[in-house]
Amino acid sequence: MLQTQQGAAVLVSKLLKTPPLKALTLFKSSIEQGFHQTHQSFSIILDGLLSSNSISVAQSLILQLVSGRITSPHFTVPSLLQYLTHSCFLNSTPLYEIVINAHLQSQLIEQGLIFFNEMIDKGLVPSSNTFNSILSSVIKNGSFEKAWLIFEESMGKEFLDMYSFGIVIKGCCEFGDLNGAFEALTKLKQMGWRPNVVIYTTIIDGCFKYGDAGRAKELFSTMSVEGIIPNQYTYSVLLNGFFRQGLKTDGFELYEKMKLDGVFPDIYTYNSLINVYCSDGEISKAFELFDDMRHNGVVYNVVTYNTLIRGLCQEKRVLEAEKLVDQMKLAGLHPNLITYNTLIDGCCSAGKLEKGLTLFNQIKSYGLTPTSITYNTLIAGFSRAGNLSKVVDFVREMEERGIFPSKVTYTILIDAFARSNDMEKALEVFSRMHKAGLTVDLCTYGALIHGWCSQGNMKEASKLFLSMSEYHLQPNDVIYNTMIFGYCKESSSYRALKLLKEMVENGMIPNGASYCLTIEVLCGDGKWKESEVLVSGMMKFGLKPSVSSRDLIQKAKNVTT
């Protein structure tokens, strides 16, 4: 014990006489040699580092202490930090800041807050960087309400700056508190500060994220009034927001304004516009933008090519899509799984199953791993072609790869078996789906109901239709129209008419086929008056009764009068 005390005294004496960085080398060397540090040795080394403004080195030392990489039987981390922060000869503000930041970096947010509050209670002023690190850490930790409270308590304090507002506003938008974001914006203005483009863009993005395009547009107008010039990112956020909410006119008008304002579209803006054109089937316009990108020096990325490939595949222009993949490779870009999944889907939709299968084998040869989307695409394609043996092979391979069939997989299989009139197999898959713990949806029910209706088994179809409420599902217009078709097929005019009326009462519009078929069976039962009411209903919804429907009504009238 005496030797330990003497050793500690010798080390402390040496540290006091040595310049800070050399003292640090001595300090580290003593640790490597198994020497246990004391409160005093730690104080001396920290004081030297802080006095020489070696803040980052001091920060590293405290971080090692907090993370448990420096230990000693002479102290615990809390006792040493308590000793250091209450030492009369240490410069308290930098010390507190490195202690706070060390805790934040170690994800010890609560302990960091304790030292922050202690610092404030002592009348010490943290730097804006330290305060902003606290706000960011608390928000990232999921404690947004706590961060807001810290922010409000710091109003008017000298360490609060524009970045503090930016952090809180971003947090509000991430946690769905748009009103909080606008409140923070108001507070910022009340302090006499002018919001910058980043803050406005953050709130605009938040507005779109939560479906409030109106407020986003108002903010954009406010920016113009206040003379804040939107940047490329602002325009990208607005364009994506408008397009996501289906406000295409607003999006394209903004694109024109963007060009007039001299802001050049970036890759994200171009990709967003190309996506809209491809989704609308306007491929030629999408390729015009593709050419514009090249002329304006904007380099294409994988997303650009994938979007155009999807557009071509939707139009069943698979050969052109394949050529685009070749062009993509020549440009030095590597097609990814999305590229191949899109091509496979295009081939399957166009009936080119063998080509789809070739692409599937290429995926595996290129070292890419097929996903449930890849398998579901192939399963759907081969199901439509009636090749159920190949479908079963895909499902088996899928499971062997450890990819569990999804709700989509099961629904595709149910539909395939139902369309091939194998309702026993369809119900077997339906049962497996339940056992797998997957929830059925409208598509699943639609496939089964269509299968029973096609077979003329309205008793089973009706059971399924009525059981939907057990899963809190409401039939959609497709299911209603399918049921009406089934009842009309068995000439049950009463049930068909009942469902048709129910559809209208539930705010749905029956399709023309449902009206015409119901009119046909009603006329067959001599109910021409009910048929005429249906004709009026059709016209009210903008549907035109067929000539044959009117002829049937007239014939029914002639028979009964």
UniProtKB/TrEMBL annotation:
Provide the GO MF annotations for this entry.
mRNA binding
Please indicate if the UniProt record lists Protease as a keyword. Answer: no
Q: What transmembrane ranges does the database entry give? A: none
Q: Where are the PPR repeats?
A: 92-126, 161-195, 196-230, 231-265, 266-300, 301-335, 336-370, 371-405, 406-440, 441-475, 476-510, 511-545
What keyword terms does UniProt attach to this protein? Answer: Repeat
Pfam families referenced in this protein's UniProt entry, alphabetically: PPR, PPR_1, PPR_2
Question: Which family is this sequence assigned to?
Answer: Belongs to the PPR family. P subfamily.
Q: What is this protein called?
A: Pentatricopeptide repeat-containing protein
Q: Tell me the organism.
A: Solanum verrucosum
